[in-house]
């Protein structure tokens, strides 16, 4: 029986790459997106063209009602949930902490932290043996920014990812005896359009020479790590923060 995977923020970048790779490994994939329906539909079409099963589901995962609707839609259309990738996240323009507005911080926390808590809670209620589930796996997408701090750039983003690291460690221990493994991938400089949304589209190319491996990573390389953590090959791995950062 095919396994079902929900990926938040899966219309582009790491999320889209993970969805496509997961489908090639026989997962049924729910491609969540906030607003870019054309991009999400494109990911679904690519998966279906290759013989896979996928649906696109609009939901702003920083809003509780949307999260509930998202999971109910997956239940109805794909059946039992076996995996969750908490990938949705935002960055903002480079600023010092003393320049940041409260509205910026509120948006960052809601999208990068609260959404992962809410989605994980729904996943646990479906996968945990405590609730009659068959177990499963959760992978949170963090960032090496969580240990670097991102000074004079986006300390708020780095702090939000540090929260995800701690969330990963705590939740992993909380549900380990209930058949659920929880891990995080911490990407480094990855060549995706998230840099453009932070006002610096050339960041990956500019920083490549400063990295030990002398290049930025790709979304596909992060997807490979995520799929390993979701797989039975990682059956004894939980509470792990896996850096995929080219030595950074």
Descriptive key words:
9 helices; 7-stranded parallel β-sheet; alpha/beta; Rossmann fold; 248 residues; globular; 45% helix
Structure description:
By secondary structure, this protein is of the alpha/beta class. It contains nine helices and seven strands, in the order βαβαβαβαβααβαααβ. The protein has helices at residues 13-24, 37-49, 64-78, 102-127, 145-148, 155-175, 194-197, 203-207, 219-230, and strands at residues 3-7, 27-33, 54-58, 83-86, 136-141, 180-187, 241-244. It has a seven-stranded parallel β-sheet with strand order 3-2-1-4-5-6-7, sandwiched between helices. Helix 1 (13-24) packs parallel to helix 2 and helix 3 (64-78) runs parallel beside helix 4. It starts with a strand and ends with a strand. The mean pLDDT is 94.
Low-confidence stretches: none
Tell me the Rg in angstroms.
Answer: 17 Å
CATH architectural designation: 3-Layer(aba) Sandwich
What's the CATH first level? Alpha Beta
> What is the residue-mean pLDDT, rounded to a whole number?
94
**What's the helical proportion of residues?**
40-55%
Strand order of the largest sheet: 3-2-1-4-5-6-7
CATH superfamily: NAD(P)-binding Rossmann-like Domain
Q: Indicate the CATH topology.
A: Rossmann fold
Biggest sheet details: 7 strands, parallel
Tally of DSSP β-strands: 7
How widely separated are the two ends?
40 Å
Given helix and strand content, the structural type is: alpha/beta
Q: Into which percentage range does the β-strand content fall?
A: 15-25%
